Amino acid sequence: MQDTVTDRDPWDLIMNAGSDTGLWFLLVGPAALLLFVAVVYMFLYLAKKKREQRELHAALVEAEDKSVIALPTSALRGPEELETPRPFKVPAELERPEAPEARPALTLIKRGAAPSEVEEIIRTDASKWRERLTLGLSKTRNALRANLQSVFGLKTKIDASMLENLHEVLYRADIGVATADKLVDHVRKTVSQDEAASWDLVASRLKEKASAIMEEAQKVSLRKPEKGPWVILVVGVNGVGKTTSIGKLAAHFLASDKKVLLAAADTFRAAAIEQLSVWGERLGVDVIKHQAGSDPAAVAYDAVKAAMARDTDVLLIDTAGRLHAKAELMAELGKINRIIGRDLPGAPHETWLVVDATTGQNAVQQVKAFKEVVDLSGIIVTKLDGTAKGGVLIGITDQFGIPIRYIGVGEKAVDLRLFQSGEYVESLF
Q1: Sign of dihedral through CA atoms 425, 133, 135, 392?
Q2: Where is average pLDDT lowest: 25-29, 343-347, 371-375?
Q3: Which of 178, 243, 263, 417 has its CA 20 to 30 A from that of 275?
Q4: For the chain, what is the domain count?
């Protein structure tokens, strides 16, 4: 009787597998399947890397032109002076917001510029800021002026219908219902029924009330550490320019002769880590980072340890912006606060939210949502130059009482500046 397959010697089966199709498939099939799985995995991995590169490219569009670098005024000094340890001090321009002339000039210098060119740019830079602010708010101002002039163009007296139209115009500028109520009520109380209605007259009254609202919030002082690095936690949803704003803030602190350290605690997006690393390289600032997907609190912990060991003045910590997963975000930020507060009591000293002005009332909702998660102490507003809804700053300040720390009216680092309520209101109206 012919031997069955199970009775045959295993070695014989292997040696004669080529003449038996079933045995050949049994031996080679698993290897082919593993190869197929490996190819599919490699394809998916490359697709993911390509997507991350596209995200990084899109994120870096907001960054400065790579042909220029942000150069602090300290570049004119000798290297031996820069290496001399300095006691911690909050930047003077943040302590005295009422004195715009005291702000250090943040320059944008072409590589290889002569010292004379550097001095000229530093000297003229501050004087150009007001011009850039006025230009950046032109869309909002022009929309307000056109709508309000149409309201006052056909009437000579202030009456109920005119005030109602005024309220509608302010509301459409994203100032918000409650804040528009306050502005219109101020106009009603301060403009006599006998006075001739005009845009100039009403604009002056709107400036008065808007300035009072914003100046009240700006009185909130910064929380300063008695010793050690000043830790600033920066939060915000993805796409508002959070990581780019951190890079620009670093340039500002460098212009104040501060030793800066960055922490890439937004480990949810690999592009965020890479983008912050690019800023660090261009500014000559160290970036504490881990691999994508790492524990953000671990990154923050290492950053605080490094900042304390290196006698750093300012530590800026980037965080993830997954507001749609509020519970997860709250737990993550809460863990960061607990971890870094162990070795540095009071840290983070400041928590600043970055919002995009072009989102209008959605920016208000972001402030409300993050305020439920963290103790917000300041707001950074970006892209004011790209919207006709710049009035949202008045509504945010009035509703939450949180000071606006910085505003951005352009792509360059020099276009992110300390917020001055007087300058803003004057440029807005």
Answers
A1: negative
A2: 25-29
A3: 417
A4: 2
* Bigger pLDDT: 193 vs 258: 258
- Same domain, residue pair 358 and 394: yes
Same domain, 74 and 45: no
Signed CA dihedral, 371, 374, 380, 386: sign only: negative
pLDDT of 357: 86
Say whether both 78 and 126 belong to one domain.
yes
The reported pLDDT for the residue numbered 69 is: 33
Convert the pLDDT of each residue in 215-274 to its tens digit: 999 998 898 888 889 999 999 998 898 998 999 999 888 888 899 999 999 998 878 899
Q: Does 103 lie in the same domain as 7? A: no
Report pLDDT for 106.
40
CATH number reported for the structural domain that contains residue 236 in this entry:
3.40.50.300
Domain residues for the domain of 2 are: 1-51
Please tell me whether residues 417 and 324 are part of one structural domain: yes
Q: Examine residue 205 and state whether it is found in any structural domain, yes or no.
A: no
Closest CA to 347 of 321, 319, 314: 314
Rounded Cα gap, residues 426 and 130, in angstroms:
10
Q: How far apart are CA 419 and CA 427, in angstroms?
A: 12
Q: Is residue 171 part of a domain?
A: no
Contact 340, 304 (CB under 8 A): yes
17 pLDDT more than 60? no
Report how far apart, in Å, the C-alpha atoms of 135 and of each of 139, 207, 208 are. 8, 18, 22
**Mutual orientation of helices 177-190 and 392-400 as an angle, nearest 10°?**
100
Query: How many residues in total does the chain contain?
Result: 429
Average pLDDT over residues 152-164: 72
How far is it, in rounded angstroms, from Cα 209 to Cα 203?
10
Please determine, for residue 329, whether its predicted confidence score (pLDDT) is greater than 90.
no
Q: Helix or strand or coil: residue 87?
A: coil
Tell me if 19 is assigned to some domain: yes
Nearest Cα to Cα of residue 398 among 199, 223, 238, 175: 175
